[in-house]
Amino acid sequence: MWSTHNSFLPLVTAYWSLPITANNPIHRVTQKLKCLKITLKAWNRDTFRNVYVVMEEAAEALNAVQAEAATLGDMDDRLMAKVECNIHLNTALAQNQALSTQRNRLQWLYDGDSNTKFFHTMNRVRKTSTGLSSLIIDGVLL
Asked: I want to staple 69 with a disulfide (CB 3.0 to 4.6 A). Which of 4, 41, 78, 113 is the partner?
């Protein structure tokens, strides 16, 4: 989600290039990571806010515009407002999807790292879906 935003890389580059006065290179990296963590938390809060709240606000705004258009008729300004609300809602839904995907990957790391039934089932499903069942070379089925 962060990597798709246009201000993410410039922000990371700017904070990573700040000079840190430390003799030990590992200590410099640690300090830069701490500063970057604080900055990224604030940037995330200001830029993305709570994805669920943004989705709900966008859906409410779209419902309000659609209700207004239903009672007063479709005018150019109402149509533009509908389009803007749809774009805002679709963006929020895409952010929610990206967040869910990231959480699922994290859950996979937690659950899939040990020899659980879940881990072995997922490996079995992956093997069957990515394996070759037949091969055709020069028109000959192997």
From this structure: 78
Bridge partners of 140?
A: 137
Question: Structure pTM?
Answer: 0.50
Torsion of CA 98, 103, 108, 109, to 10 degrees: 110
Element (H, E) at 136: strand 136-137
Distance from CA of residue 114 to its chain's centroid? 26
Name the β-bridge partners of 141.
136
DSSP symbol at 116: -
Chain centroid, CA 133 distance in Å? 34
The SS3 call for residue 2 is coil
Joined tokens for residue 77: 């300004």
What is the spatial distance between Cα 70 and Cα 55, in angstroms, rounded to a whole number? Answer: 22
